[in-house]
Amino acid sequence: MDELKVFTGNGHPSLARAVTEYLGIPLGSCEVFEFSNENIFVRILENVRSRDTFVIQPICSPVNKNLVELLIMIDAFKRASAGRITAVVPYYGYGRTDKKDQPRVPITARLLADLLTVAGVNRLLTVDLHAEQIQGFFNIPVDELTALNLLSNYFKKKKIKNLVVVATDMGIVKQARDLAAKLNAPLALMEKRRVGNVDQTETLNVIGEVEGRVVLTVDDEIDTAGSLVSTVAALEERGVTEIYACCSHPVFSGPAIKRIAASPVREVVVTDTIPVNDDKKLDKITVLPIAPLLGEAIHRIHTGLSIGAMFE
Predict the structure, then answer these.
(1) What is the DSSP string of 160-171?
(2) In CATH, which of 3.65.10.20, 3.40.50.2020, 3.30.465.10, 3.40.30.10 is domain 148-288?
(3) What stretches of the chain adopt beta strand conformation (E)?
(4) How far is CA 128 from the centre of its chain?
(5) Run of H or E residues at 151
(6) DSSP code, position 48
(7) What amino acid positions are annotated as catalytic residues?
(8) What pLDDT digit, counting tens, does each position of 218-256 carry?
């Protein structure tokens, strides 16, 4: 496994190119396309026998197509006798379905783990999973990176005074606490309740002192921006002076961009684990590059160095 190979499907080719530029190697050559009958075809166009192979593909929109592309690519590499196959999944789709919170529902995040493993993955590299227990769904090594350092460094440079970090729900408290510590700011928490299976939440309470302060909300992803809008409304009622928002994964589905544009949020800072296309760009949305983080992790995995040392 002395030769490193990095490939990509159609999920986020610009990210894969940025990663290979960081590593100083060419992007692997392969064909990945869809026939007229919607069947996906993959052909690897170079030798990968015994090579250390990485496949970069976020499970983002179109979610199911990108997932199947990834699975078929993994199978192709396995059958081409790749030495070790690492799935680089910056955004782990279906991660929000991580437990049975209602009767007769699936645990789809676990199903994806089984699918990837059966397809032939030897290792998973991902960024900021929705729930920590997803790592335990795999019987192979999982390296979970975090974008917190990237986000905290950005806001450190802004030197915002009187800042308080607000966790948008209970599930993000640990990450929000870490971000608050990096920014030397206090922590507050939104207590809220999700309404059924639709993308709506009902904000119940704000725990912590936010009146007269500048607020930075933190979440792992922004999907329809419904949670962000309700959080902002609750914070405004409690007399905050200014609101910033940040997250790792800019899903931005449905009405998200219109909601963000109409909201009083001063700036939304995200990373490019998911492509942010031109139709999803606003002046108030700042996209930070995740490629150096992924590139360094790939280099360390390939050379046997510590991933944890990146965050010490």
Answers:
(1) -SSEEEEESSGG
(2) 3.40.50.2020
(3) 4-8, 30-34, 40-44, 52-56, 84-89, 123-127, 142-145, 163-167, 187-194, 201-207, 214-222, 242-250, 267-271, 285-288
(4) 6
(5) helix 148-158
(6) -
(7) 192
(8) 999 999 998 899 899 999 999 999 999 999 999 999 999
